[in-house]
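Predict the 3D structure for this chain.
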Amino acid sequence: MTIRVVVADDQALVRGSFRVLVDTAPGLATVGEAGNGIEAIAVALAERPDLVLMDVRMPEMDGIEATRRICAEIPETRVLMLTTFDLDQYVYSALRAGASGFLLKDTPPADLLAAIRVVAAGESLLAPSVTRRLIAEFTSRPEPSAPMARELAGVTEREREVLALVARGLSNAEIAEHLHVGLATVKTHVSRLLAKLQARDRAQLVIVAYETAVVRPRD
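Done. Predicted structure below.
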């Protein structure tokens, strides 16, 4: 099955390069391009792609706001953010907007193609430097409020354990080994967490875990 991709970047040369890269990779195809956030939304609504490669900084509407609107309108479409700017504020904002991954534009082509496949398959992807910045963002934030803590009211104790391990970056297999349970059991817990917390993917679960203090940066 072909993964359908939209490329959104305000530089035509960059868009063209990404398009060639995607179209020459097995199982991937570009179905549209956009030069700003407004165009990205329009193309995504028209094509309903599996994934949007989204630049952060674009004219008229930036990639973060475009991501927010696309994720709200087309929940099945994943967004992979790409930027030259390795800056803290973009990481948190992009993931809060619904992005499932965040990579720098100097990522090697093979790694970018692998990231497209990972994110399109429903997983989340964060570069190590991005993960550090995400944790740093939470470190600087105040303690979560009581209303936010109440969001976990329907989550079981075991599910909290799984959520904490997801937030620390463990894979399902690693969580299964840590908790001495089967892989299928872990997958069930993760699926229930996604449903109960209305999270799109693991990246969103990480945010919920920190915002509700299930995990703290100093842990």
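The chain has a mean pLDDT of 84.
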